[in-house]
Write a structure and sequence with these properties.
By secondary structure, the protein is mainly β. Helices cover about 10% and strands about 50% of the residues. It has one domain (about 1-75): Nucleic acid-binding proteins (OB fold (Dihydrolipoamide Acetyltransferase, E2P)). The protein has a 5-stranded mixed barrel with strand order 1-2-3-5-4. A hairpin with a 6-residue loop joins strand 4 and strand 5 (about 65-75). InterPro entries: DUF7999 (IPR058312). This is DUF7999 domain-containing protein. It comes from Halorubrum salipaludis.
Length: about 80
């Protein structure tokens, strides 16, 4: 399963590389736990709580709420 959209950072990247996001502007919460590329991981790890990011995600298949980020782009002035 893949999805693309805008997400608000709820909890920034932790020591395990996981980021908690909320679908923007809705309230579905999800967790990015894997990254396709180190640049994508770097983009997400630089964001603070409340930041909005546009992502392409793919389900990791491990848990229904865990995702792999395929691309990430911070969004300014939403």
């Amino acid at each position: 399963m893949n999805r693309t959209g805008k997400y608000t950072v709820v909890k920034p990247c932790n020591d395990h590389g996981a980021v908690t996001l909320r679908e923007y502007p809705r309230n579905e919460t999800l967790h990015v736990v894997e990254y396709d590329d180190p640049d994508v991981e770097a983009e997400l790890s630089d964001l603070d709580s409340g930041s909005i990011v546009e992502l392409e995600l793919r389900s990791t298949g491990r848990r229904g709420n865990a995702w792999c980020a395929e691309s990430a782009r911070a969004v300014d002035g939403v």
